[in-house]
Amino acid sequence: MYYIGFDIGSSSIKAALIHAETGKSIASVNEPEEEMDIISVDKEWAEQNPEFWWKYVCKASKRILKENTISPDQIKGIGISYQMHGLVLLDQNSELIRNSIIWCDSRAVAIGNKAFREIGEEKCMTNLLNSPANFTASKLKWVRDHEPENYKRIHKFLLPGDYIAYKFTGVANTTKSGLSEATLWDFKEERPAKWLLKYYDISSELIPEIVPTFSHQSELSFEGAYESGLKEGIPILYRAGDQPNNALSLNVFNAGEVAATGGTSGVIYAVTDNLSAKEGLKLNNFAHVNHSQTTTSIGKLLCINGAGIQYRWLKNNLNLETNSYQTMNSHASKVPVGSNDLQLIPFGNGAERMFDNQIIGAHICNLNLNKHTKSHIFRAALEGIAFSFVYGMEILKRDGVKIKVIRAGNDNLFRSEIFSNTVATLINQEIEIYNTTGAIGAARAAGLSDGAFKDFGTMITKNDHVMTYHPLQNQEDYLEAYKNWKRELNRIIKK
Exposed e or buried b for every residue in 159-174, given b needs 16+ CB within 10 A? Predict the structure, then answer.
């Protein structure tokens, strides 16, 4: 028997099968082959048609069963991970009203900022643990203000994962964690923040039913089963946004545990057991997958927009003998810590929230044409991105996070010894590397919800642990390099 997990991204849909007894990953597929389109009729807009998500969920589901000769009767349950903060609108007949306004759309920034000022920082940070900012509630307000005819038709609003669950089952519901990422969960009162909707002049009747993250949320309908190739009656057992789910995939559940991602952008997701939000304008606070009325579990999410995109830019624009990250890493390994006082500032991918939404830009500092080579540039790039992670972790520590363990996926930046050793050494903390994905995590979470895995952490370690980076002995060299990098960063910020 097996569990199946889906990860609903903005670029592709991923599906994974795991064995119901061992939790071992059996197979994974991506659909479509090319990245899904993002509709942007305005420079600040980003939309997708949710029907395409469903189309590729069904295609991935049928494909993974066929390629692995698995019968729909062998699937015990479904887990869903999804792109966070999106807005999906259904009418009374359960038809889509408009395209989804997805996570990277920024049209509602001014709406959220105005709400934060008028409601007040204390109320927002105490109850929501966030500013309403550009999250789902503010996007819904935008629709109310700018598309009144569409707004009048709304029966329920959903998050992207809620919509996929609805297509499977015909039941519209959401989770506490989902409402928190929409900034519609009141942590102080432990209930939906209807007062925020009232401020926005939006009916709280639009909130769907709330079900636990781990629970028998609904069952596949005849239509959902027919379209997906699965079996009618299979339960949806788990649902969470991609960052909380990524943390779960890495066995990050408890206070002091941190999940890190080093892709085009970087993410640091730290779990705490308190409702303090001192740095709420530089990071976000969401209900983690195991947050409940009796267990406080908050995921503090800090995003670094300018991360791996800088290293990719260098790969694409420098004339390498072999156009690969391995070649770049080999060049970088020839250069000592600190890159002979060459610093790269990696924030060239738009505004950075941890700098209060300033556009810092990417910079090469102290380039000496007589001594620096491309090897120095590659090392300085890896160090600069690593320093930005350390800088972000310092913000998290000021917000009360006590880091006990860091876990990361075996992808992108964390495959680089220079990058991972730099972070581990500067924060004096081991970094555990795991070979897993969001779809695998969602499938395992379905099993956890179903009571299949008695020791979830051991199961993940046994199946996925790749290696552990340990702090190096020459910490002084790294501290000196980091001090020099921060000196250049501060100089740029103060311009």
Answer: bbbbbbbbbbbebbbb
